[in-house]
Amino acid sequence: MRKFLLAILFAAIPFILFAQTWEVGGFAGGAGYMGDLNQHNPAQLNNLAGGVYVQRNFNPYFAVKLNYLTGHISGADSTSNIQQFRDRNLSFHTTLNELTFMAELNFMRYTPGADKDHFTPFIFLGAGAVNYIPQATYLGVDYNLRELQTEQQAKAYPYNALTIPYGAGVKYNFSGNWNIMVSAGYRYVRSDYLDDVSGSYPDRTKFTNPLAAALSDRSGERTGVYIGNPGTQRGDYRGHDTYLFVGFTLSFTFVTANCYY
To answer: What is the 3-state secondary structure (H, E, C) of the chain?
Structure first.
């Protein structure tokens, strides 16, 4: 993770040196997740999110930013309207800490601090890293699922994963150099374990840790009948999970003497 952050900072140096204006802002909104415990609702938001960023504007159409966001995501089969998922009875929650380097493109000319060009839709795309540690609440206690290896993975999945943010929004320069934005951004994650669910049920008899066995197959906690037979489907077999941030951003653009007007 440290090497990745340093690489991003060094990559940002040319933009910092040669940019004509720069901008800082804060984000507040909601976080959601789509994966093995939410397979059908890509717009579901269930927790809060927030963050900050530093941005360099090269002209009225193009900018790059270093962006930090944090949010909480969760999922629970017990809330599903599908009986198959309620029978599975898995759940998770985790805090996401994301650092990304993104490019932003305005569809219309946008010049904060000027007497015109105060509104534009925009799109963004980037790359970065996200830190996550999925947990589950069992008998009133939160447990780190990663360390338990509930699918008997060959090795525990890493704490950090590659994330690719992409999305769109609209921005409005409402007063002087002050801007407000509304945006929605999805994240492709190079991991299928944000929720600690991915493939098939392992053989519970091969667990040496009884807690790992209990959290691997939770289907019988309510009924006493366990459905997680070894080799049967536990997750959705897709290669990655997805999460999203939706919300508002308030920013201030510092316009230098050599601005791009």
So the answer is: CHHHHHHHHHHHHHHHHHCCEEEEEEEEEEEEEEECCECCCCCCEEEEEEEEEEEEECCCCEEEEEEEEEEEEEEEHHHCCCHHHHHHCCEEEEEEEEEEEEEEEECCCCCCCCCCCCEEEEEEEEEEEEECCCEEEECCEEEEHHHHCCCCCCCCCCCEEEEEEEEEEEEEEEECCEEEEEEEEEEEECCCCCCCCCCECCCHHHCCCHHHHHHHCCCHHHHCCCCCCCCCECCCCCCCCEEEEEEEEEEEEEECCCCCC
Q: How confident is the model over 111-154, as pLDDT tens digits?
A: 988 888 999 999 999 999 999 999 999 999 999 999 999 999 88
pLDDT for 19 equals: 47
pLDDT tens figures, 74-93 = 999 999 999 999 999 999 99
pLDDT of 259 higher than 90: no
Identify whether the C-beta of residue 240 lies closer than 8 Å to the C-beta of residue 199.
Answer: no
End-to-end Cα separation, the chain, in angstroms: 39
Candidate from 91-95, 161-165, 227-231 with smallest mean pLDDT = 227-231
Contacts of 175 (CB under 8 A, 6+ apart): none
Task: State the amino acid at position 126 in one-letter form.
Answer: G
**Residue 183 near residue 167 (C-beta atoms within 8 A):** yes
